[in-house]
Design brief:
By secondary structure, the protein is of the alpha/beta class. Helix content is about 25%, strand content about 10%. α1 packs across α2.
């Protein structure tokens, strides 16, 4: 078809044959000028455009923004330091019974919930401690506050730490607020200033919770009972003795308790006496 067209075209349409080279030349020029310069570069020039000099890059000490040379680095850590916080207990509730035909109901505030515990378990499949090294801080959940109608608060959420088999756990330092409070009470018991019936000595803003309807003047005139003895959770008997030194050389079917949560505060029914039938305070 092209052969016949080439033979017939000059005789039938001679003006088309004369204008054909000009059209081709115009098409070539237009196409050549429409191509951007970046597409006309050769392959070696394109590779040079994306080359970088690592010496000119600013130094980066942040592990979240490593240099390009560390992109293929294998993440592995066989040593890390963690700070563990067992969950604190919830506050006790100051509440009273409210029913029809009952003008002044008895106290019915619930106790605060216990804090969350921290467990540790050696499992198969874990080969590095880099995940724990990134966290640096492990904190269990706090217990919920008590509620009215003698409803206790919910327990805090527990935390499980999974480590590779063969991990050795060593305790560096410890802060036990209950033990510190016991030492403080022992020192105060031998002094003359600490009187057992002194209301001002028993009143501590960080230990008591007052009813919201109490006026500021009532704080100075209210008579507070002696503070309850600091309590510990029964689960503290299951945790390892201090200082902790554990060798997890075998896989564990059940997790081990590492730090027990604190006990919640007491509700106002615990402080009912003949002289104070409706106490308006609870402990934290």
């Amino acid at each position: 078809m092209s052969c016949c067209q080439g033979l017939l075209m000059p005789f039938l349409y001679p003006y088309l044959e004369q204008s054909r080279p000009s059209l081709q030349r115009a098409t070539k020029i237009l196409f050549k000028n429409s191509i951007p310069k970046r597409f006309l570069s050769t392959v070696p020039n394109i590779s040079k455009a994306y080359e970088y000099d690592s010496s000119k890059l600013p130094p980066s000490d942040n592990h979240l923004n490593p240099p390009p040379e560390d992109y293929g680095r294998t993440i592995f850590a066989d040593k890390c330091t963690l700070t563990l916080y067992a969950g604190s207990g919830g506050h006790g509730c100051v509440s009273f019974l409210r029913e029809k035909y009952v003008s002044a109901g008895p106290a019915n505030g619930g106790d605060g919930g216990s804090g969350g515990n921290i467990y540790i378990q050696a499992v198969r499949g874990e080969t590095s401690l880099h995940k724990l090294a990134r966290r640096g801080l492990v904190k269990a959940g706090r217990g919920k506050n008590g509620q009215g109608k003698s409803k206790g608060g919910q327990r805090g959420e527990d935390v499980l730490i999974q480590v590779p088999v063969g991990t050795v756990v060593r305790e560096v330092s410890r802060y036990d607020p209950v033990a510190e409070e016991d030492e403080r009470n022992k020192l105060a018991a031998g002094t003359v200033e600490s009187l057992e019936g002194d209301a001002q000595e028993n009143w501590k803003p960080d230990k008591w919770i007052l009813h919201p309807s109490s006026m500021p003047l009532a704080y100075a005139t209210a008579e507070f009972p002696p503070l309850p003895r600091p309590r510990k959770s029964n689960l503290t008997l299951s945790q390892p003795a201090a200082p902790v030194h554990i060798d997890l050389s075998e896989p564990m079917e059940k997790p081990m308790l590492l730090a027990a949560g604190a006990v919640g505060g007491l509700g106002n029914p615990h402080f009912v006496t003949q002289s104070i039938p409706r106490p308006k305070f609870a402990t934290r």
